[in-house]
From TrEMBL:
<dbReference type="Pfam" id="PF00300">
    <property type="entry name" value="His_Phos_1"/>
</dbReference>
<dbReference type="InterPro" id="IPR013078">
    <property type="entry name" value="His_Pase_superF_clade-1"/>
</dbReference>
<dbReference type="InterPro" id="IPR029033">
    <property type="entry name" value="His_PPase_superfam"/>
</dbReference>
<feature type="binding site">
    <location>
        <begin position="66"/>
        <end position="69"/>
    </location>
    <ligand>
        <name>substrate</name>
    </ligand>
</feature>
<dbReference type="GO" id="GO:0005829">
    <property type="term" value="C:cytosol"/>
</dbReference>
<protein>
    <submittedName>
        <fullName>TIGAR bisphosphatase</fullName>
    </submittedName>
</protein>
<dbReference type="GO" id="GO:0045820">
    <property type="term" value="P:negative regulation of glycolytic process"/>
</dbReference>
<dbReference type="InterPro" id="IPR051695">
    <property type="entry name" value="Phosphoglycerate_Mutase"/>
</dbReference>
<dbReference type="GO" id="GO:0043456">
    <property type="term" value="P:regulation of pentose-phosphate shunt"/>
</dbReference>
<feature type="binding site">
    <location>
        <position position="38"/>
    </location>
    <ligand>
        <name>substrate</name>
    </ligand>
</feature>
<keyword id="KW-0378">Hydrolase</keyword>
<dbReference type="GO" id="GO:0004331">
    <property type="term" value="F:fructose-2,6-bisphosphate 2-phosphatase activity"/>
</dbReference>
Amino acid sequence: GQGVDEPLSATGFRQADAAGLFLSNVKFTHVFSSDLLRAKQTAAAILGKNRFCKDLEVKYDARLRERKYGVAEGRPLADLKAMAKDAGQQCPSFTPSGGETLDEVRERARDFFEFLCQLAVELEQKEHGKPGAPGRSSGTSGEQFVFPWTNHCSEAEPSSEGSGSSTVLDANILVVSHGAYMRNWIGYFVSDLNCTLPANLSKSQLSSVSPNTGVSHFIIKLENGNLLKPQIMCVCLNQDSHL
């Protein structure tokens, strides 16, 4: 939850370093992280291993915090499950006293995602507004956006027409957050925004919580800067081959 702001454990640091090595050839344009310590440390470890982005500024955002669990925070998961059972409910839909409902978590995710979309549109407009400057979408990506899961996660990875090279993106954003929060965010993508999913993804995988430092990759298209109808494609979900 939010109330117990503990640092990563020794295992957590090893996992964060492994994620950093896994993503070391991905050139990010922006990095956002939850302002809770474990997420901050994870983001720092990822950037510390990156070939291109060691000095990229991390922006911390409270909207990326883990779900608030109220009276259950700092207690074992078994206690939360017992509270839910006593209330005649099941996890994760159960909300402990003082905690956030799933709808409240989803609203935070929606608000942050709309902020990211606005950021991307403004970035694209700024690039094209420069006299004589080519847009980010021209040319080839070279080593800019080398996603390590491309060959084994999805056949839907976008490519430049006829060239076979990855499309140059207007923004390539790393977001470091938490398991329950991200499950709600993904639920928002699927139920509200009709996100396209990999064909081999099962319902249980879709509803599961990401493993620590699990990586999910989404490609967002905003046709003509239309913020109301983003096209979202999931390339991979909860990728953990680096662990």
